[in-house]
Amino acid sequence: MSTKAGNFKNPFSRPWMTETGAAAAAGGAGSVGLKGVVAGGITGGIEICITFPTEYVKTQLQLDEKGGTKKYTGIIDCVKKTVKGHGFFGLYRGLSVLLYGSIPKSAVRFGVFEQAKLYMVTDNGTLTTTGKLACGLAAGVAEAVFAVTPMETVKVKFINDMRMEKPRFKGFFHGVKMIVREEGIGGVYKGVTATIMKQGSNQAIRFFVMESLRDWYKGGDRDKPVPKYIVGLFGGVAGAASVFGNTPIDVVKTRMQGLEAAKYRSTWDCFIKTWKHEGPLAFYKGTVPRLSRVVFDVAITFTIYDSIMDVFNYVWK
User: Fold this and answer.
1) Which residues does 165 contact at the CB level (< 8 Å), separation at least 6?
2) Which listed residue, of 137, 217, 218, 288, carries a Cα 20 to 30 Å from 149's Cα?
3) How does pLDDT run across 109-168, given as a tens digit for each residue?
4) Which parts of the chain are Solcar repeats (predicted)?
5) Pairwise CA distance, residues 66 & 90, whole Å
6) How far are the Cα atoms of 86, 97, 123, 162, 236 from residue 91, in angstroms, in the given order?
């Protein structure tokens, strides 16, 4: 009996989990997801403090529709008018809203990706093309539902409120209270479909490109370390790919979450009306500021995340 027990082989075993490699280095399957959540949360807080001004400009330009209400002629004009009217820190208006959302967003994203990766990884410890896309998609959908939609809706409404002659929101909690009172809890879930589409495609593209570039650099050697400057470079490429892939979705999402979202019956209706009244180029409004922000954002995000995970893998066994 003991002989049989000694020869028993678990049909569900994953040998790479007990050897060296990404999963093993992270301390085993039980802690990979949790480490991803904590490291992701820290990464999100640092990243948003660095990149917020470009996010602010991008959102302002996307909300700036053609016609008599058009306020800005471009990126520089938007920055100049904002600083002139509200001072330098006017470019940071709404930071608290995004900071509150960035930490859980990044935590959910990396936590879900790391956990999904455990189930999708192949026998040699790598992900297939489908696996990379699926893990990224899962991470994006999860962050859209649990963090991005409510916090992005509040952020856009705050920035939009600032465009009025007499802003109504006096602070984060006051603004959220007014939104919920006037529109119900659904008021912070405007554009959820567009957000799921945006975040799902965003992370599917980013993680696919990132993981593919890592595999290419390692050349089949899973234990080969990737220098942090290379991680940053790969992150920038992944960010650029996601921008060109889903900026139209981002524009629709932003308008669905603005203060004038009521004029759109649905995400599809927003798409149709924007195309009809402003033309196809309207879907690429804010591309330049978004590209500069996202490339830098994704580059530092993966660099910071990798650095934090290195520390965790050393002290968190």
Assistant:
1) none
2) 288
3) 999 999 999 999 888 878 999 999 999 999 999 999 888 888 777 777 877 787 777 778
4) 31-119, 130-216, 226-311
5) 23
6) 8, 13, 48, 11, 23
> In this prediction, what percent of the chain has a pLDDT beyond 90?
29
Alpha carbon of residue 170 to chain centroid: 27
At residue 20 the predicted structure's pLDDT band, cuts being 50, 70 and 90, is very low
Closest CA to 248 of 265, 273, 271: 271
Q: What does R_g of the chain's alpha carbons equal in angstroms?
A: 22
User: Which tokens in the block code for residue 153?
Assistant: 């809706």
Location of structure tokens 């000694």: 6
In which band, very low, low, confident or very high, does the pLDDT at 68 lie, cut at 50, 70 and 90? low
Q: What is the pLDDT of residues 204-228, one digit of tens each?
A: 999 999 999 999 999 888 889 999 9
What pTM value is reported for the model?
0.69
Q: From CA 313, how far away is CA 32, in angstroms rounded?
A: 10
The per-residue pLDDT for range 185-201, each reduced to its tens digit, is 777 787 788 789 889 99
Query: How many contiguous H segments (helices) and E segments (strands) does the chain have?
Result: 12, 0
**Which token pair is 263?**
């004029």
Would you give the distance in Å from CA 292 to the centre of its chain? 15
Q: How many residues does the chain have?
A: 317
Output the six-digit token pair for 291.
């590209």
